[in-house]
Amino acid sequence: MIIKFPSSVRFPVTITELLKQPNDDVKRMDALLLYTYKTTVTEYPEYGVEKQVEKVLSSQFDAPISGKIAQWLVKEGTVVKDNSVPIIEIEEPCTHEVQFAGLCTVCGEDMTLTDYNSYFSNSDRATIQLAHDNTGLKVSEDEARKLENDAKRRLLRERKLSLVVDLDQTIIHATVDPTVGEWKDDPFCVNHESVKDVAAFKLDEDVSGGRGTWYYVKMRPGLKEFLQHISKLFELHIYTMGTRAYALSVKKIVDPDGSLFGERVLSRDESGSMTQKSLHRLFPVDTKMVVIIDDRGDVWKWNDNLVKVRPYDFFVGIGDINSMFLPKKQEFPAAVPAAIAKTPEKPDGMAIEEKDEEEEGLGEDAADPTKAAGSTNLSTLEQLITMGSGSDQALITDQSSQLDKAIEAQKEARPLAKKQELQDRIDEEAAAAEAAATENGVIHKDVASDGGAHKHSVLQDNDWELTSLQNHLTRVHEQFYQEYEKNLTRKDRVSQLKDSKKLPEQDGVDLTAVPDVATIMPTMKRETLSGVVLVFSGVIPQGADIFSSDIARWAQSFGAKVVETVSSKVTHLIAARSRTAKVRTAARYPNIKIVSPAWLYDSISHWRHELEEPYLIAIHPEDRNPKINGFDGGGPLLSSEDEDSDEVEEEEEDFNTAELVDTSNVPWNDVHEEFAEYFGDEDFEESDTESMRSERTEVVEIGKRKREPGENAPADLEGDTTMDESSPISSTTVPSDTGSRLAKRQRIARERAAAGSGLRDVEISIHEEDDVESGSDSLADELERELLGLDEEEVEGGGG
Amino acid sequence: MFFIRELEKTITLHPSYFGPHMRDYLIHKLHDDVEGSCTGQFFIICVIDHEQISPGKIIPGRGDAEFTIHYKAIVYRPFRGETVDAVVTSVNKMGFFAEVGALQCFVSKQAIPSEIPFDETANPPQYSDGGEQVINKGAHVRMKLVGIRSDVGKMYATASIKEDYLGVL
Fold it and tell me: Fewest C-beta in 10 Å: which of A216, A252, A310, B73?
């Protein structure tokens, strides 16, 4: 080890004498050299005043470590300027590379002892925790690198990668609701079938005298096969936010003989952080060969090695029992089709709950007041807990007790039992309704009211995420080793050219040729949705930042571009409900596919751009005129909502150079009809310019309620009606002082006309245009809204 | 090494325990409190004799009574260089953990003979020479303590099996 002066020495110092020779054995505290330094001291002469005197003082430097002197790096007379100059190299008998609980594991020396001479701490030499199950064991960086390289060599030889597996909601779902146990024991219960393969274990609480808690664990469907297959390609590690006892118990269930996970279990007790998971805790040197599967991206900070899976939610409404310490999970509505078990809704998401009722047809979440109250409790608790950072010990203790309380609360509240009750009630009602409907058929009634056959279980077990996950992981593995082989052959050739004598590395393993999963996998993922521009509607809660929301980041990691507003560049609108403002807007763009969130989830889950057709959301006929559906004239509708000004400019150029389109062949009668239909005015049936005039005044009348005529609105309408009058030269006759907006409008009109489409769309586009262009002009906005006759749903959060 | 040592313990008793069974309760509490505890110097294994229980002294203002009990106990104190028998609790690529009673020890790879390498693919993970010597979870090993560190109420040790007559039993 190379020794330098501590920073406490008064630099510059002059070395005056070296007291030891190379190859001498030195003990800690042995004097190594003498040096002199300059300093000012205050002298107090016998008579007279005290004065500052500069003096040269001598001092000695003691060995901070024991060992054998390898060489001196200074000579007598050398002036040392600062503490970066090496003084001496001492070979240590033990470098304390691996330490356990403050002890060197090789020499057994106590690393925590300090004295006046220990200006560097021995315990700082080994800071990296490498063991899964023990935080006391620490190794130095060199040692960690050595160990990791060994491990990587072994993996390469076995053609494996490392896979870090999360437990809760990724491969299993656990609950403490005792209802599950009762269902399991009761073979006649309607839920018995669903829970009969649920495993259970009991954990004792920390407090003495506690009776312990029963945990019920449901394995994700296909887990056994998944793990069997994947363990041939990956070395599996468990990384969970549960306690160690919990993790081990779960491991015993998913891996009874320990052949899959071995001892590689890391729990919250050893994680070092209550809120984050870090790959560096397990792979401190590099993470090139590591893949993570987890249902939460935020705890990994959306690491590139992460494959985020859809949360497994078997016990409806339970969520992740070990997520107390984590930041609050962002809930999304209806990640899955109605048949699949649903995630619990946020109590404040009223709109979301509305949708549930519609979609699920059961309305179980929204209709149950007790459940809603329960979840409110839980979520406030969660919020309280997650407010603080996880570093504070007192806080952690506090959080632990909160977690216990929450678990206790779940045991008491029995959310599943309540759900089943509710389900039974609904079933009964349905049966009653059925009976009422077929009142004349007495036999039918009997069968229906008997109930047993008609009862439904709240638990659904139709999750097939693991099947696709298995495919993805296999592909990642393949891709990785293809890349590795490629690098290897290239390297071989280079090295043969360079140095033919050089021996190939043992076992044909070359660590330098290892590609990085963190670059391979994102590339594979990004292909999935590349070119897709997404807008969310009704998916992300109001007020939340779109771009930091889980779903947006998730989609982005698959190559999709997420934007805030609907524009011509958008390719997909992910809508949770069918009649939001964005859906209405998007409905006017024939190129935008309006799909349910399930499309996005399925695409992401399958790593494949799914066909949109099965996911298309039915658009209310008022929102999308059937004629528009027929319209497929070249390309997207133009709108000034394009945030990209470049494109607008470009398009305007197009307009200037474009030849004028003859609109005389446009079926204007149809246009007028459509227009009339849109405004709900029978008079338009007449379809002559006279009526167009009257229509115009009427529209202005509407506008007047909000603002004075003569401002934007009349100007807009001027433009509109000019076009309405089916004059092919309208675009040229309009005064130029109305500016580019008008020009654009005209262009739109022309394109519209050329495409032979309805006038209504022109109208809409124009109003939209106003909306955006005069961004601050809320009046125009309101006018537009009135014109479109939107209901209150229109006012939709910016969050989409 | 095990010793019989005379120790002293002060127990505070709530007034609700004052009564005919007070002495039994005190002894019960003594056993509960000290057996299995670690002072930082040694582990108290077993109380074997309680010689003397001092008369209780009421703490002014609270009503609790304070008793001082002198007792004899078997204690275990590990020493550096001592050879001990231990049970392996966990094995990893850096070494293995073993327990000598209540004392947790770590034996690093450097302190394991190189003839017994780590076999990462084995299930459970183990150090083995492919023959008789297999160090996995639950194995009994004889080892020599190399370093001991005491903390408040805790003790840790590191050990070695890289000497004659040490290793798997």
Answer: A252
DSSP state, residue B54: P
DSSP letter string over A12-60?
SEEEEEE---TT-EE-TT-EEEEEEEEEEEEE--SSS--EEEEEEEEEE
Both A413 and A545 in one domain: the answer is: no
Task: Enumerate the active-site residues of A.
Answer: 166, 168
Mean pLDDT of chain A: 70
Cis peptide bond N-terminal to B55, omega within 30: no
Per-residue confidence (pLDDT) for residue A43, from 0 to 100 = 84
Q: Are B71 and B118 within one domain?
A: no
In Å, how far is A197's CA from the nearest CA of chain B? 27
Give a yes or no: residue A150 inside a domain: no
How far is the alpha carbon of A119 from chain B, nearest alpha carbon, in Å? 21
More reliable by pLDDT, A398 or A13: A13
Average the pLDDT over each of A319-333, A354-368, A666-680 and give the range with the smallest value: A354-368
- Evaluate whether residue A665 is within a structural domain: yes
The domain tally of chain B equals: 2
In chain A, the residue whose alpha carbon lies closest to the alpha carbon of B154 is A101
Residue A698 has a pLDDT of 44
Q: What is the per-residue pLDDT for B64?
A: 92
Who contacts A353 (Cβ-Cβ below 8 Å, separation ≥6)?
Answer: A345, A365, A366
**Interface contact B108, partner A, CB < 8 A:** yes
For residue B163, the domain's CATH number is 2.40.50.140
Question: Is the pLDDT higher at B80 or at A383?
Answer: B80
Residues A614, A662 share a domain = no
Q: Kindly state whether residue A606 falls inside one of the protein's structural domains.
A: yes
pLDDT band at A748 (very low <50, low <70, confident <90, very high): low
B150 has a chain A CB within 8 A of its CB: no
Quote the CA–CA distance of B146 and B143 in Å, as a whole number: 9
Q: Are residue A367 and residue A492 in the same domain, yes or no?
A: no
Picking from A241, A239, A276, the residue whose alpha carbon sits closest to that of residue A389 is A276
A538-542, A624-628, B124-128, B145-149: least confidently modelled range: A624-628
Least CA distance to B108: which residue of chain A?
A: A105
Q: Containing domain of residue A80, as a range?
A: 2-139
- Please indicate if any CB of chain A lies within 8 Å of the CB of B121: yes
* pLDDT recorded at residue A271: 80
Is B93 in contact with A150 (Cβ distance < 8 A)? yes
Q: Are residues B102 and B155 in the same domain?
A: yes
CA angle, residues A521, A523, A526, in degrees to nearest 5: 110
- Per-residue pLDDT, averaged over A697-705, amounts to 44
* Interface membership of A150 toward B (CB under 8 Å): yes
Nearest CA in chain A to B162: A106
Residue B145 has a pLDDT of: 93
The four Cα atoms A336, A338, A343, A347 give a dihedral, to 10 degrees, of 130
Note down the domain range covering B156: 83-168
Closest to A88 measured CA to CA, from A35, A46, A51, A41 = A35
Q: Among residues A522, A754, A773, which one has the least CA distance to residue A640? A: A773
Chain CA centroid to CA B32, Å = 16
Q: How confident is the model at residue B26 (pLDDT cuts 50, 70, 90)?
A: very high
Say if A358 falls within a structural domain.
yes
Question: Is residue B143's pLDDT more than 90?
Answer: yes
Q: Give the number of domains in chain A.
A: 7
Last residue of a domain, one of A513, A547, A577: A513
